[in-house]
Amino acid sequence: MGDFIYVLSLVTIGVALLWFGYTLIIGKILGRLNNKVNPGRQEKNRGNSPGDPQVCPICSSKLIKGDFVKTLAFPSLTGGKDRFMHIRGCMYCLEGNFERRCPVCHKTLGNNDILLARMFERTFRRSHVHVLGCSLCKRVP
Q: For the segment 1-37, what is each residue's pLDDT rounded down to a tens digit?
């Protein structure tokens, strides 16, 4: 009876390790297949909307690894986890390659116009950015 329990425990541990390894390897393979991006892209990837992750909120071009959106985050005035921020854009729309549009009012933005946003900092997840509008639609008359 003791040999049967010993063999059963070894089989259970083996099945658990096989399942874990299978899901880990398949997850890595599928993750690489889903994240393939043409690094030499010259034109804007269509089908992206401003709210999608890893997309410039101004020109909606998909950002590849190493591309960043130029921002300026101000310290919180209330001591909370939300901060006010200015979004200038990515390197593609700042160089004039793509049309710059506000995701709120859909007006065409110039090179000196910015997006006004609020950034909510989270402890265990990525920070959330909520775009309020641009310097044209949020201008005080």
A: 778 888 899 999 988 888 887 777 776 666 555 544 4
pLDDT at 27: 65
Same domain (yes/no): 134, 83? yes
Number of domains in the chain: 2
Q: What is the DSSP letter of 112?
A: T
Structure tokens at 116: 């006004």
CA distances from 137 to 22, 49, 109 (A): 52, 20, 10
Q: How many angstroms separate the CA atoms of 92 and 100, rounded?
A: 10
- Residues 73, 48 share a domain: yes
101 and 109 Cβ atoms separated by less than 8 Å: yes
Considering the domain architecture, whether residues 29 and 57 belong to the same structural domain is answered as no
The reply to whether 23 and 66 lie within a common domain is no
CA angle 118, 123, 129 (to 5 degrees): 20
The closest of 118, 116, 119 to 135, measured between CA atoms, is 116
pTM: 0.59
